[in-house]
Amino acid sequence: MAIINGHNLRWKVGGVAIAKATDCTISISGDVRDTAHKDIGTGEGAGWKGSEYGEKSWEGSCNSLYAEDDSFETLWTAFNANTKITVEFSDGITGNKKFSGSAVITSMEQNAPNNEDVTYSVSFSGDGALARADQPAP
After folding, report:
1. 107: CB partners within 8 A, 6+ apart
2. According to the model, what pLDDT value does residue 98 have?
3. Average pLDDT over residues 114-121
């Protein structure tokens, strides 16, 4: 299997890639439940806590160059209206794996440094399960 080029891996919102993206991130985590109890204090397990899986969560973010009437407007409209977005994290290559799910936008930020390109970032938090499946043919 070939190593995936990060240039190709990107976030899509409603099936459309976030335009002019410079980097994208996905983070998947799980809570841990502490299962320590009084009987663990003796014998072979003495002094060790017990743990079990708890709830899982995921979030994503993307940094992009800003252009009027581009993806920023779609993201802003969803955020401003408290609308959940359908997102996909994939390289678009048939047969490769992709992540997908529903999310809520948690933050948006624009950065306008002197004599440099304007950029923006968007972060979102998953609403429910994150699916993993093969990328279908276009």
Report:
1. 121, 122, 123
2. 96
3. 97
CA count, 13 A, side-chain hemisphere, 88? 18
Prediction pTM value: 0.86
Residue 31 and residue 34: Cα distance in Å, rounded? 10
Q: Which pLDDT does position 76 carry in this prediction?
A: 96
pLDDT at 41: 61
CA distance linking residue 43 with residue 47, whole number of Å: 9
Residue found by looking up tokens 């948690």 in the block = 106
Residue pair 89/101 in contact by the 8 Å Cβ criterion: no
Instruction: Indicate the SS3 state at residue 72.
Output: helix
Dist. CA 77–CA 68, nearest whole Å: 14
Note the pLDDT of residue 35: 84
Give the burial string for 86-124 (b: 16+ CB within 10 Å, else e).
ebbbbeeeeeeebbbbebebeebeeeeeeeeeebbebbb
